[in-house]
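Render this sequence as a predicted structure.
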Amino acid sequence: MMQKGRKLNIRLYVTCALGKCSIITLDNLASHYICHVMRATKFDKIKLFNGRDGEWIGEIFELSNNTKIRVNELVREQIITKDLTLCFSIVKNTVLQNVIRQATEMGVTFMQPIYTKHIATSNINLDKCRKWSIEAAEQCGRLDIPYIASPINFTDLKNLKTSDNNFIICDETGKGDYPSEILKNKNNIYVIIGPEGGFSNDELNFAYSFCDGLSLGTTILRVDTAVVSALAYVNEYYCML
């Protein structure tokens, strides 16, 4: 008699190729999560994705420190996410985790940490950021993982400007325009979010040499709140989620 397992509410990001009848071997960390945190048993089914091959249902056929899963069925075709870059000033980990998670949930494809004058810390753990991003993608149902780049100086952003992209700086001084005026019919958008202490006057003056200014309202927002607010506008006028 064929064994029948449960359909578990688990999505796992893997780096290997996914295809009908392929065998996936999980690492120790993922195996521990499957076996001891989620209490999976043999023949249980979970969802797998790798950012390239869509989302698949896989069946656990061996539970161990290197759990093995047989890939059975394609349930969602891979889609191409519209290019959207978030450039954000480096913040402390308590806020940084929210920034990474929210940017992942809201469709950012490329994250660029930046050094600005008023940052509270210059330290950023990119491995930890990538881990947070993967966890967010697993939880929100996204099919790909954003790329998180090494930090650069704020002034280096101008070197990334081309005729094909559009830089939007979130101006906390109130000088920015309304979203409907600057986001409509734009392609390849780069959203720039400042530090908790705000941009310096020199930084803002420099930014307006290659950026459009976006107003997020009359109140001063936390960095992670500003990320959500700005990306919500972008999704409305650009990504059309």
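Summary. Residues 31 and 67 are 5 Å apart (CA to CA). The chain has two domains: 7-76, 84-239.
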